[in-house]
Amino acid sequence: MNADQLADVVAGVSDPEIDVGLRDLGVLRSVSLTDGRIRVHLTPTRLSCPAVGEIARRVRAALAEAAPGHGIEVVWERGAWQPAAVTAAGRDALRRGGYRVAGTAPRCPYCDSEDVEQAGRFGGAVCKVPYDCRGCGSTFDVIGTAGCNAMLPTPVRGGSR
Amino acid sequence: MPHIPTDSDVYEVFAQSGHGTALSHVGSIVSPRPDAAWHLAKETYGRRDDLVKLWVVRRTDMIVSSAGDRDLLAAKTRMPYRQPGFPTARRRDRSAAPPAVAAPPERRDSGLTERRDDAREPRLTDLWLALADDLFVLGNRLGERIVDYIDLEEALAVGSIGQEALAHAGTILVLCGFDQPAVDARFFDRAQAQWQVSRVVERLTDWPSLVAGGLVIAAAVAVLAERTAEAEPGAEWLSAISAIRDEQLVHLDHWRRWARALAAWPETRTEFARAYAEVTECAGDMFGARPQSQGQGVPAAAPPAGPALAVTLHERLAVLVGDNGGPGSRLPDGPRTRTWGVGGSALADSLSRGRAIRDHYAPGVFS
């Protein structure tokens, strides 16, 4: 297998929390193959992502099955994730799962309304910012970094006292 | 074991005596025939009072618990922190507990002795390593408080900020050239006497002080990250440093809201003013790290962080703290030097808890 094929193997590995592939989520940066050694460059959506261990384990398992006998090295590029790295397919998969990606004006993933309100600055996971939709009453999360969070236009409702 | 009773002529009687009351079990009767049971129950339990409902069920049609079912009946999913008395009991237990022993076990000392190399000027790396120590303790102190909150939003905020403080501490060490085992050894196997935390850390005990301390530490990390990014634009660690700065600015904004709120409420105004004054008075040493023997990188080629740099950073910190924490800051006019062995019970607690948790993991989890 060449490096492109190996990259496709890694792309097929899903995120442990949301059912979306690592390439579509923008987590996969590159895969290289030199002298029988595979180097996978990944980036967590957030520095404190608790899933890095599980993601690395899944990547190693998938590569060991697809291309046995190679050394595998997983390199985490810290802070390199950008919302723009999420592919169109990734955005669709996230929307179906009830998520939006930071960087554009957030719309409700369920009813597509733009009448949404940020419900706080910290969500159930460090990479998520919670939102409420005033159109259909749903709650959803926007996935993004702190830099993107600062970019989001909607003011925080109530705040934290 | 739950079982089906065998006494087929016994009936259980349930009655409701008023609209505002519940249907409840009132007793049992013996009846030879099912059709007579209801009337017998009416005679027995409904003679004096008006009843709204009367239900009768044959005992053999029920599944009932036995005397030995206490274990089966005990709640399995009852989470202590969801019980109404938990926060109060926890605060009481904490305040009654003796302070953690300051000296950690010597067997943990895995050759990480710091050379006290005061002959050399501190570098940016030394400043980062010292702030990583502060972030580690802050993250631990915040982590302890997650369950104290009835308010979900605040629990999420404190949990996220604590988690990120720990992650930033670890990331800083990686940027300074530590691999993962070395990161773990530095945080969990180093004697307290070899930590170089700020004097702010020993204040991180009550909530108003944590707000003030969180604010000061977030501001200091943001200031140092900004300065580091200026030192070597285009460096490969820049994205990580920028992410740390951006995330700490979000934390700083959270603490700013808390500081404003605590300073505004009449009930908390005095206590917060005292905590804010005490914490800022201790915060002169944010950039006062002494040279440490460990750590390279961030950025290896950067100039020594001499006295002039410490003054610049300190001035930026003073502006940021005043802007966010409000008036009443007692930050010293100039930077102060750090020393080893401070941190008090806040550091000792964080170390002993971390070690206790790691001791209970299966062998090989931390390899």
TrEMBL record, chain A:
Domain PaaD zinc beta ribbon: 105-142
Residue ranges constituting the MIP18 family-like domain according to the UniProt record: 8-69
Gene3D superfamilies named among the record's database cross-references: Fe-S cluster assembly (FSCA)
Pfam families in the record: FeS_assembly_P, Zn_ribbon_PaaD
UniProt superkingdom: Bacteria
InterPro entries the UniProt entry points to: Fe-S_Maturation_MIP18, FSCA_dom_sf, MIP18-like, Zn_ribbon_PaaD
Name this polypeptide is given: DUF59 domain-containing protein
Source organism of this protein record: Microbispora triticiradicis
From TrEMBL, chain B:
Region of interest (Disordered), residue spans: 82-118
Biased composition (Basic and acidic residues): 105-118
Pfam families associated with the record: PaaA_PaaC, PaaB
Source domain of life: Bacteria
Name of the protein this chain belongs to: Uncharacterized protein
Source organism (scientific name): Microbispora triticiradicis
